[in-house]
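Hi Prof. W.,

I finally got the Redox-sensing transcriptional repressor Rex prediction working! I wasn't sure whether to trim anything, so I left the full sequence exactly as given:
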Amino acid sequence: MKSTSQPRDRGIPEATVARLPLYLRALHGMAERGVATVSSEDLAGAAGVNSAKLRKDLSHLGSYGTRGVGYDVEYLVYQISRELGLTQDWAVAIVGVGNLGRALANYGGFVSRGFRVAALIDADPEVVGDTIAGLNVEHIDELEAVVKRRGVSIVVLATPAEAAQAVCDRVIAVGVTSILNFAPVVLSVPDTVDVRKVDLSIELQILAFHEQRKAGGPLMAVDSQ
Ligand SMILES: NC(=O)c1ccc[n+]([C@@H]2O[C@H](COP(=O)([O-])OP(=O)(O)OC[C@H]3O[C@@H](n4cnc5c(N)ncnc54)[C@H](O)[C@@H]3O)[C@@H](O)[C@H]2O)c1
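And this is what came out:
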């Protein structure tokens, strides 16, 4: 697996890359409200980071803003989008079209961010052939052919955990190097492949930990014994 702390392309640190989507989301909101320029403080506040970090992050993109004016919102949207590779259209395949896969397929927000759901793939004959969000669900036996034919660059894995590694191996074998994994399993992949994992239950567990602390949970109980 790749380390997440190493600088990547043109020396932009991975942590900066991870914050660029936060800036972009905040900037999109500002652009929609007709805001033309934004100070680093206001953008940092909207993105939930501190402004010194934001200025440092944007300096990696060669963007320094104008003293007393701030950053040009539209231009910064373009710069960040270009850096993230969002000025081109990415074809995404969703493998596993159950509850989660369907919800993702029906979500309209990906397209405006540069991602097009180009294929839906499942193993269940009851599901194959369904039309979801205008796309026909195709059989897992067709995986390699579909990935090639549709020019899929990113695969979203929404299968049960036990199926995920085998699907992952197959899409890597056909040339996919970016995987978004929702299945609760750690995938084993070569260094040339990027895997991002989404796990809502881990996020909930972290919130539960903080809730417990706020309520004076087990730590306090241990202290008082
Ligand atoms: N990361 C998260 O936060 C999160 C949240 C919800 C669910 N999940 C995970 O996402 C996955 C999907 O959840 P769900 O509720 O949609 O489950 P689901 O059972 O409704 O859907 C799974 C789908 O995968 C298909 N499938 C099974 N084996 C396959 C294979 N080899 N190739 C292609 N398709 C195959 C099934 O036919 C089914 O349609 C599960 O692994 C679940 O644990 C993760």
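The first strand starts at residue 37 and ends at 38. Does that look reasonable to you?

Thanks,
D.
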